[in-house]
Amino acid sequence: MSNLRRAFTFIELLAVMLVMALGFGAVIGLVSYGVRLSGEAQAALSAMPTAISVLEDPEPLGRSADVGDADGDEWGSDAPLSGLLGRPSYTITVRGAVNGYWVKRIESSTAADRIGSAARSATVTVEVYWGPKGSYVTGLRRRIVRRGPNT
Fold this sequence. Notes:
Layout: H1 10-56, E1 66-67, E2 75-77, E3 90-98, E4 101-109, E5 119-129, E6 136-147
Parallel strand pairs: 1-2
Antiparallel strand pairs: 2-3, 3-4, 4-5, 5-6
């Protein structure tokens, strides 16, 4: 009988280890990508109700949209929200933190948007971001009607 050894060579072991390392790297990359996609989907799902809420209410969660965020509640505007029906035209930006997102609400109306003396239409755009300088998550734009004295 011959004295032959049956074993893997060092080169074969290195090749197998290289293939396994590439496979593990690919699996880790796919799992990381899946987690990121899941987080983005969850953010979009929870950011849209936040955008709708801020669209309907310029002072959400009881926060006051005071000029320059004077009360420190992280929700402030660049102009007062009172007396909008009496102005010929306006553009008001309100921004701050709501539900863990940075939200910017822009409401604008021109003189042509007046509907009589007690109502006017306006365009409202809401943008939701991850943070003050974060990436865009979602947004929406709608026309609203403001009614009543001094609304």
